[in-house]
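OP here, attaching both records as promised.
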Amino acid sequence: MTLTTTQPVRTVTIGVDTHSQVHHAAALDSMGHLLGDRRFSVDLAGYQALLDWAAGFGIISAFGVECTGSYGAGLTRHLLAAGVDVIEVNRGHSLTRSRSGKNDAIDAEEAARKVLSGQCASPAKDTTGAVEAIRHLHLVRDSAIKSRTAALVQLRDILVTAPGSLKERLNAKTLQAKATQARALRPDMARLDTPEQAAKYALRELGRRVHDLTAQINDSDRHLNRLLNSITPTLMSLPQVGHVCAAQILVTAGENIDRFPSEAAFARLCGVAPVPVSSGKSHRMRLHRGGNRQANRAIYLVTVGRLKLDPRLRAYRDRKRAEGHSRGDVIRSLKRYVARELYYALRKDLLQLSASQLQLPLGGPISLNEPGGGPVDLAVSLASAASSVLPGARGTATDEIEGAGSGGPES
């Protein structure tokens, strides 16, 4: 008689503390016991060595990686290409640092424990598709805008103390027009030791810089418009949603939109989810002060723009103001509604993009707007339409939009 014994299969969870030069990894078994930790270089050889080292402990359940959008981006792409689940892990908590100290090994172990306990369960962003390309273009445009603004402010400040003859020559009404005039200045390069010629030279160079940056901005806008109209046509068709807002929302959400369990999670990420601040007889709500502030700003601009043009939103504002709510309360409620609408439009576009890449059929179109009614009615019809096509969509629009506009400082 032959007796056979079977060894239980051990699953391991790996946590990685990422840095610019080295990554530190720690491995835990399913019971939370530390199996080992090790440092690896930040290159393809180091990524593969980390994966081989982790596989030596057993079947890999998941990787918990810190900073998947910055220092851990390369490792995340390598692990996803190898078919390993990667969970995005937030930075270490201050309580853990005060109790256990801080070093790379402790941070890596803490990242693995967050994944093992379920505290962190959101998949990392997919940075291998068109959304990552849009992020790069949006980054170039954003930095060019900031640089052009700085150059225009410097040009204005130089004109404040410039000689009177220069002020008379640059007599346009706007700073942009003055920068165009400054490009035509011809300083005497042999007399740059005099304030007037030095001021001419400075103004001319700032005018040229503004011109070049404007050309960069226009090129980026053209490329962004082309990409966004082909990738997110539903999102771009929404009222008051331009290419800058669409790009920011798309970059914030990421290409794998299914990493959000619901539209409420997306609203939380954008900082427009209601938070209760009630106490005793006071029953109030406010918006979440955290989240992605760039996405929050984009949603705010869409909301303010719609308030100026949409009669249904103006009717909703007037009704809420008559009930005693402030303008900030109304905007907070509408920001929650706008976030919901943006989420379902974005989800539809990204699911269609994924289906086209896989050459799979997708369900019928989603109606994002319904004529008539106020913003609450629009939100309900939107959530209902989405729930009929998109799995996991929730239709609790009325309660959330009403609850989000009950006081608290504006986000």
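Record two, same layout:
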Amino acid sequence: MLDFIALIFSAATTMIVSTLLFVTAGQAVAGGDRSEARQTMRLAGASLALQAVLWIAAGSQLWR
């Protein structure tokens, strides 16, 4: 059960991080810095991929 709680907490934290990265990318676009926006979007995409893996792992822990 502790593993499940840790996975949920990690997935939720990753969700917050990806949201903040998308906001940062939007501000970079508004400021005209396209290279920073691209780099931030890559990080946000990686964060979303990690989030998906964590949710899948939490789901598999739930059905054990």
